[in-house]
Amino acid sequence: MREMSEERDVIRGKLKQIVFRNDDNGYTVARFIVDDLQQRQVTITGYLPVFSEDALMELSGSYVDHPRYGMQFQVETFHRVMPDDEDSLIRFLSGPLFEGIGKKYAETIVAALGKDAIHRIKNDPTVLDSVPKMTSKRRTAILEGLKESDDDLENLIQFFVAHGLGMRNVMKLERIYGKEAVEKIQENPYRMVDEVDGIGFATADKVAMSLGFELEDPRRLEAAMVALVDQMNMQSGDTFVNREGLAHQMKRQCAGLTYDFDELLESLLLQRRLVEEEGRIYHVDQYDAEVQIAQFLTLFPFEELEPVDPETLQFELDALQEKLAITYDQAQLDAIHTFFKHDAMILTGGPGTGKTTVVRALTALFKKLYPYQRIACCAPTGRAAKRLAELTETDTFTIHSLLGWDLESNTFTKTEQDPLIVDLLIIDEFSMVDSWLFAALCKASVHVKKLCIIGDEDQLPSVRCGCVLKDLITSELFPLVRLERIFRQSEGSDVITLAHQIRQGQTEELDCHGDVAFFPVGLYEIKDQVINVVQSALNKGYDIQDIQVLASKYNGPAGIDRLNAALQQCLNPPEKGKREWKAGYRTFREGDKILQLKNQPDDDVYNGDIGMLVEIVYANEDEAGKNRLIVDFEGIPVEYTSDNLLNISHAYCISVHKSQGSEYPIVIMPVVRDYGIMLQRRLIYTGVTRAKKSLVLLGEKDALIRGIASQEHHLRSTTLTQRITAMLNPEF
Ligand SMILES: Nc1ncnc2c1ncn2[C@@H]1O[C@H](COP(=O)(O)OP(=O)(O)OP(=O)(O)O)[C@@H](O)[C@H]1O
């Protein structure tokens, strides 16, 4: 039993050391030095933000006698006490809150503004002008530091944490709504779903319930309907839902609640959170994305390049072929001429058909013919961008980094107001680009004068909504060059031959010889046989990073989770001296092969990147008292703590979807009936074409054949093509 003393106490003092902290909700156990004559040390507990150790705090709460931990001070409210003597003021201003302000400059500030410097700056920031040697950097550091030390922020944190939000989200709210956050969220917590990235309906609903909202509150039902449209789109890949389907799903989700569907929908249409067009209901973001893409492409280009003289082009082309000792075939030459003749072009073709070879020629010739124009190459994944950079010797980016993506707000700094300064834009692996991302790229591309889109139309469509590549090809807006001849085959690739058979839906006499092997294996033997194949490749001298196992679903005996666990046990077993970190159901071990699951642009690692776990640092050796894991992504070290551990998983076996945009020397791919409808032609094709050198298929031949024969069950429904057509022919 815990005993609690009755009266509320107030203590003043400073934080000494954090003993425990849950970063999700801010729950903290810390040592605190009370600012009295004895300088007593007290253990405090409560939901608190991270304070700097120098901050003078006033805590109000009560002492609790904990049976195991003894007397603790349980914090109910807290606020920062501003220093009121010169010494403390100088220490405060030169503390960690004020970046770049040292002791000397803090003295200058206090000498200029006196003991009530903080009060004066807060009342009128222009008083900083009277401080000698005040630079704009120093000014920003002081104002930002004061903002952080504000009591309002502390009250705001307490309010939201009490209503179930984690510290991370609270900080986002503060950034978006400022001091009005509490008022705004109290009035309608569901606005967070639309306005705060990373907060979905479930989180907003938790806050609303805690604030006492009714289940049938119209604001709740409206938010539920918008979230439902989003969720249905994410599941199907479509860019809209139909009215009846939405009404039906809404009925299921809001069973037992009384509401009028038509009225709710009408209200959402009026607010323009949803958009209706001929019975189709769009989430406003999806609608705007389609319109933006269609508008941009139909008006493209806004400025034109001087045309090239055909003779000069031919001269440079001949010189390039000689320099590279290559002869482009007719389709490749067509691609090159089309590119220089038109403002935009789509280049498509299967693996090994020479797409990258053409891009190399395009960039080399463009540099010669337009020496003062800027080129940017981009791709949706880091891997694809790196490959393009190696081959084209041009500035190459992921689309996210090109657009200056901000992870916290999920927004881009490059927009129509601050567009890209690029004349030629080349986008590779375009089949993976979704509607929302392409719309963002279009918005920032108003100065682009030439556009080249490259992608394999037979690969899986983008993870998120839309099928932009297919829609652009169907719209016939831009000239399309299709490369069919397989050049890699002449280098002896049986993988490519098989890939083309799969693409054409050919199921008889599948070419499984040479670099392609098929082993008939039953479902329950898959795990052991995969290990055997991996072992024999390792024995032949391949590295674990060269070998990639690709599976089609997560659960089941041949699922990703099971294969990862088995492969880890076999390839990187526990060993004395090899450090481990058990995190939930996963054990990370030094030497593990790791997959990045999310974009982390600040660290330069992206969804689909693969690295190696090189070091584990335990909490008791770490300054911040946290377990830490360091992964090396081809020379880029990235740190993970419990805060971002969900961004990675083991990579011995990964999904075919995650492998898009990457290539591996050896691919091992189980194909079993247990994968069900996942095993379709596009997925098999995408997996098979990841293999650069050799491919091992193992499983049930009938599952492979049935998979190749099965086309997508659900072709994505979008309206991009018809929008483009309508914009080109406004009279219809
Ligand atoms: N005209 C050509 N003559 C000789 N070899 C060629 C020619 N075009 C391409 N190749 C060679 O064919 C191979 C595949 O070309 P490339 O990498 O450009 O194809 P790709 O379509 O980009 O393939 P993937 O999509 O699989 O990367 C390369 O080794 C390339 O050097």
TrEMBL record:
One of its GO terms (cellular component) is exodeoxyribonuclease V complex. Keywords: ATP-binding, DNA-binding, Helicase, Hydrolase, Isomerase, Nucleotide-binding. InterPro entries: AAA+_ATPase (IPR003593), Coronavir_polyprotein_1ab (IPR050534), P-loop_NTPase (IPR027417), RecD2 (IPR006345), RecD2-like_HHH (IPR029493), RecD2_N_OB (IPR055446), RecD2_SH13 (IPR041451), UvrD-like_helicase_C (IPR027785). It is an enzyme of class 5 (isomerase). It catalyses: ATP + H2O = ADP + phosphate + H(+). One of its GO terms (molecular function) is single-stranded DNA helicase activity. The keyword Flavoprotein does not apply. ATP binds at residues 352-356. Gene3D superfamilies: 1.10.10.2220, 2.30.30.940, P-loop containing nucleotide triphosphate hydrolases (3.40.50.300). Its EC number is 5.6.2.3. Residues 341-491 form the AAA+ ATPase domain. It holds the Pfam family AAA_19. GO terms for biological process: DNA recombination. Belongs to the RecD family. RecD2 subfamily. HAMAP family: RecD2 (MF_01488). DNA-dependent ATPase and ATP-dependent 5'-3' DNA helicase. Has no activity on blunt DNA or DNA with 3'-overhangs, requires at least 10 bases of 5'-ssDNA for helicase activity. This is ATP-dependent RecD2 DNA helicase. It comes from Holdemania filiformis. The gene is recD2.
